[in-house]
Structure of Serine aminopeptidase S33 domain-containing protein:
Amino acid sequence: MPVSSTESPTEPSLTAPDSVPEHIWRPDHFLDRYEVLTLPLGDDPDGEDPISATLIRRSAGGAAARGAVLYVHGFTDYFFQDELAQFFHDRDYAFYALDLRKCGRSFHRQQTPHYISDLAYYDDELNAALDVIAAETAPAGRNARVLVAGHSTGGLVTSLWLDRLRRTDPQRHARTDGLLLNSPWLDLQGETVLRTGPTARLLSAVAAVRPKALVPRELSSAYGQSLHISANGEWSYDLDRKPLTGFPVTFGWLSAIRQGQLALHRGIDVGVPVLSLRSDKSRFRAEYDVAVDTADCVLDVQHIAKWSPFIARRVMSVAVGDARHDVFLSQSQARAEAYAAVDQWLRAELDVAAVAAR
């Protein structure tokens, strides 16, 4: 069934509360049966104080038989995928999601949406979220088993985080059990000449002096229209936090993305088994047409296939037929194929028994 958000008449503005007591869970204003926890992050290294992140949980927490999931969204996105949470709940996982700083529930009106100048800054909220999840879900006397999941930009962010965590904080890293990537953003679009050499140097140069200047580009609404129920899709979500045409892209943010991608291209090791899901094809359109309902119209899937093996020693890479950019928001048949691939991987790599067919 499609997920629907609970957009109540008393829904708060985009400005998050300035001060929320630590570890106080509150009802979520967007999804029934969910709670949110504000994670204060101190001063913003990018100068847009105050900053915080938001941890979302599906239920009242507590130990789960299999462990827990920590899900991280992509660019122009936030957590609303209740069906994904239900999938893991059915397999005895406690489900948590993280709205990163300046994203979704964590956005403040004085901030630049999704802006960050170094992807390593996200370590603060990722570490904090992992600590909360471990404290709530690990059985007494046992280490936590947290499966990290990341979509698109979130897939790049979580991959780089786990690599740093493995090298610098092995005790925290030991709490993680695997990495599920949903169309991770591992390279820029376009011909090779446009992604290297003078163009790459120009991007870094502009970012150094005008980090929040906007990258000139035409914004396509094709992906948003293929998803949202108000257009041609079946999914309901908040269009302030996930607008159909996306948020504007800044040079500083894009430079941070590119530096992260180049680090991954040199080879990293997240230290846990990886499943990387993608569509079997890309189709880019300036405007919506039915072709984008059965393809990735955001990223080049060949890039995902090429760079996924650079993430870890154990990577299962799967192309899902007719999937969208977010494979878990695909049409029903592709969505079922994606969930079947996750089930297979869980059994093969994490020793999770299968449950009844959905």
